[in-house]
Amino acid sequence: DAGVTQSPTHLIKTRGQQVTLRCSPISGHKSVSWYQQVLGQGPQFIFQYYEKEERGRGNFPDRFSARQFPNYSSELNVNALLLGDSALYLCASSLLTSSGANVLTFGAGSRLTVL
Amino acid sequence: QKEVEQDPGPLSVPEGAIVSLNCTYSNSAFQYFMWYRQYSRKGPELLMYTYSSGNKEDGRFTAQVDKSSKYISLFIRDSQPSDSATYLCAMNTGGGADGLTFGKGTHLIIQP
To answer: How confident is the model at residue B54, as a pLDDT?
Structure first.
């Protein structure tokens, strides 16, 4: 079985540009979450989506947006890129959406470098 | 004060040693506790998941949660060089769309 797949794996952008990252969840998982991991830090929660609706949002500016498609895949968009947006962007999928641990399976991530 | 504190290390131990990794947290609403392992340039991989206080064992790994002290631990027995990685603790309240709150991660090195 394929795990969580993310694309692209690496990309380089310049300040002010926009980026779109893509994620396909594990088959049967209806929830997708996005995390940002800056070098030397733990992942930080950005969004959770379930059944195409945003169900949770972390403390990130409005430059960050996401959406989920009918096939449960997801895109993360970041506008007006800043140097501080350089990070590994992790997508995770899960089965649980109501009360529970929300145990996540992560993809390998998309490494974004902003110059 | 950060919600989850974790010593970043590096922690270097000889092969075969027992490893103890720890996190403290401040939010008493956290109920679910996880340990992830992350190899360089890879995504985190779930090792253990525990609900509330108590112990859980899986092979060479044991997770402990002490909610009264807001302290969680991961023990690795008979450590192997392949265990060398960054270990991340994570937790949440279990409230539906509650995202995970991670520690900074501890970089573990097992010396052959």
So the answer is: 86
